[in-house]
């Protein structure tokens, strides 16, 4: 990837203090992008991510914002524009995954998941779009999940939001074609991260009742920086013809 071509480009990655988002900002900054590291509840992990970026000579800054809060989202985008004067890339990543069975859900929890997992994406696009339209190479990448493509036997609430992201991406891809802003989804399988926010049930070790022996994958999980490399490509000029796509990165999990 041409680092010099990216040196003026600016990216916002929501939920990037740790986990998948941290992997994305590390790769982007390593390749010349300047990034806003967004977190909501864990400043220590965000500081660790920033330190890793700066140790490699990258440029980033941290901003705390809840993606469900309109005023906080506006303040974050305003801070990016004040600091760097532009915004070229939006990576929607912040998400909540409670890993509940259907009879464990209540309406407030379901509403909260929708507010974060799809509402946060919707509002971030609205806030960033005026600036993305000014960019010579604007891009939107929405992080989704294979839960939105392949049914499992738990967490229907989460799966619903991930399916919605796929259709949201398709609609945006058509709507923003005149603006030359490709919009794509990454359908992510199991990923190696530090921990899940809120420490939800069976965050890493699923109980037997949620396992399907016909869907076991002997391969390793995906690493966050592998997701970052795919985001980097989708944000490049070479990927300008990819629009409205859902690209799966899961080590072939849905195939077995």
Descriptive account of the structure:
It is built from 7 helices and 7 strands; from the N terminus they run αβαβαβαβαβαβαβ. It starts with a helix and ends in a 7-residue tail after the last strand. The mean pLDDT is 88. Helix 5 links the parallel strand 4 and strand 5. By secondary structure, the chain is α/β, with parallel strands linked by helices. Strands 3-2-1-4-5-6-7 form a 7-stranded parallel beta sheet, with helices on both faces. It has one domain (3-255): Rossmann fold (3-Layer(aba) Sandwich).
Helix/strand layout:
Elements: H1 3-6, E1 10-13, H2 19-30, E2 34-39, H3 43-55, E3 59-64, H4 70-84, E4 89-92, H5 107-132, E5 139-145, H6 156-175, E6 183-188, H7 224-234, E7 246-249
Parallel strand pairs: 1-2, 1-4, 2-3, 4-5, 5-6, 6-7
Helix pairs in contact: 2-3, 2-7, 4-5, 5-6
CATH fold group? Rossmann fold
According to CATH, what is the class? Answer: Alpha Beta
Number of domains: 1
Number of H- or I-type helical stretches: 7
Determine the mean pLDDT.
88
Detail the poorly predicted runs.
none
Widest sheet: strand order? 3-2-1-4-5-6-7
CATH architecture: 3-Layer(aba) Sandwich
Features:
256 residues; Rossmann fold; 7 strands; alpha/beta; globular; seven-stranded parallel β-sheet
What would you say about this model in short?
The chain is built from seven helices and seven strands; from the N terminus they run H-E-H-E-H-E-H-E-H-E-H-E-H-E.
């Amino acid at each position: 990837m041409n680092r010099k071509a990216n040196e003026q480009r600016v990216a916002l990655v929501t939920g990037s203090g740790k986990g998948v988002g941290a992997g994305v900002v590390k790769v982007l900054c390593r390749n010349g992008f300047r990034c806003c590291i967004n977190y909501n509840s864990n400043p220590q992990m965000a500081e660790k991510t920033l330190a890793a970026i700066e140790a490699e000579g990258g440029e980033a800054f941290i901003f705390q914002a809840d993606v469900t809060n309109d005023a906080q989202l506006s303040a974050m985008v305003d801070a990016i524009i004040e600091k760097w004067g532009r915004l070229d890339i939006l990576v929607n990543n912040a998400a909540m995954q409670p890993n509940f069975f259907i009879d464990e859900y209540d309406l407030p929890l379901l509403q909260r998941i929708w507010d974060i997992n799809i509402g946060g994406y919707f509002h971030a696009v609205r806030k960033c779009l005026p600036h993305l339209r000014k960019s010579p190479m604007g891009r939107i990448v929405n992080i989704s999940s294979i839960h939105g493509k392949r049914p499992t036997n738990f967490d229907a609430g989460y799966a619903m939001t991930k399916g919605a992201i796929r259709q949201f991406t398709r609609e945006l891809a058509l709507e923003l074609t005149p603006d030359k802003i490709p919009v794509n989804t990454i359908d992510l399988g199991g990923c190696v991260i530090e921990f899940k926010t809120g420490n939800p049930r069976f965050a890493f070790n699923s109980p037997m009742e949620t396992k399907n022996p016909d869907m076991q994958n002997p391969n390793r999980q995906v690493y966050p920086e592998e997701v970052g490399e795919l985001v980097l490509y989708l944000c490049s000029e070479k990927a300008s013809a990819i629009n409205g796509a859902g690209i799966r990165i899961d080590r072939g999990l849905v195939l077995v």
